[in-house]
Amino acid sequence: MKHARIRLPGEADIHAVLVNDDHSVQLADGRRVAEEAVEWLPPAEGTVFALGLNYADHAAELAFKAPTEPLVFLKSPATLTGHRQVSVRPDNIIYMHYECELVVIIGKTAKNVSREQAMDYVAGYSVCNDYAVRDYLENYYRPNLRVKNRDTLTPIGPWWVDRDDVANPASLTLRTWVNGELRQQGNTRDMVFDIPYLIAYLSSFMTLSPGDMIATGTPEGLADVLPGDELIVEVEGVGRLVNHIVSEAQYADRQAQTV
């Protein structure tokens, strides 16, 4: 089963919906609305944890060694957006790239959870594109908010899929297309720290809550993106997330039209 959060045109209310096989959504009052007729929001509302360098091949392409302990950072609300939304490439930068990632949705409160019990705390899975502005990356020990926490640069969705509907999250293909061309491909089997390890690690020093999301890192295969580009990131058996890159001026124009 697929679960999503959406808004209907001209309405302020947010609806928690189920998603049908044709990607239309089913509202609680029985209405069925086409995929293109809704505003897709991030599918959960908890804290977003994100992993840096959690694929050894990605660390190598950035000339880093794979970390020996999970490198985790947080995402603030303004950086999150949904399916079919836009992401802003900042002016006067040199290199901004996509990152296709599997997202784990936490289903119940987790504190001091063992690796063996960790998967019992997973509600399901989603997809994100964790864009990075590489101009400001110095080394992975330093806080990298300017790299990873820009407004609109973390689309998540379109939905999350129940845990039991994904047979083996440790072997899922990840793919990214830029303007229809396949540019990135990897597999979750190549994570440095797998999902049970990450849940056990985080819950050993803090409480994870229902709705929290863990973006689990990206494989190698990165390239610069520019205003006008269409990005599609896909995780096998979970979903396909579409968004477009705009300039700061284009984004300002879009915002002015919605006032």
Automatic annotation (TrEMBL):
<feature type="domain" description="Fumarylacetoacetase-like C-terminal">
    <location>
        <begin position="47"/>
        <end position="246"/>
    </location>
</feature>
<dbReference type="GO" id="GO:0008704">
    <property type="term" value="F:5-carboxymethyl-2-hydroxymuconate delta-isomerase activity"/>
</dbReference>
<dbReference type="GO" id="GO:0046872">
    <property type="term" value="F:metal ion binding"/>
</dbReference>
<dbReference type="GO" id="GO:0018800">
    <property type="term" value="F:5-oxopent-3-ene-1,2,5-tricarboxylate decarboxylase activity"/>
</dbReference>
<dbReference type="Pfam" id="PF01557">
    <property type="entry name" value="FAA_hydrolase"/>
</dbReference>
<dbReference type="InterPro" id="IPR036663">
    <property type="entry name" value="Fumarylacetoacetase_C_sf"/>
</dbReference>
<dbReference type="GO" id="GO:1901023">
    <property type="term" value="P:4-hydroxyphenylacetate catabolic process"/>
</dbReference>
<keyword id="KW-0413">Isomerase</keyword>
<dbReference type="InterPro" id="IPR011234">
    <property type="entry name" value="Fumarylacetoacetase-like_C"/>
</dbReference>
<keyword id="KW-0479">Metal-binding</keyword>
<dbReference type="InterPro" id="IPR012684">
    <property type="entry name" value="HPA_isomer/decarb_C"/>
</dbReference>
<keyword id="KW-0456">Lyase</keyword>
<protein>
    <submittedName>
        <fullName>5-carboxymethyl-2-oxo-hex-3- ene-1,7-dioate decarboxylase</fullName>
        <ecNumber>4.1.1.68</ecNumber>
        <ecNumber>5.3.3.-</ecNumber>
    </submittedName>
</protein>
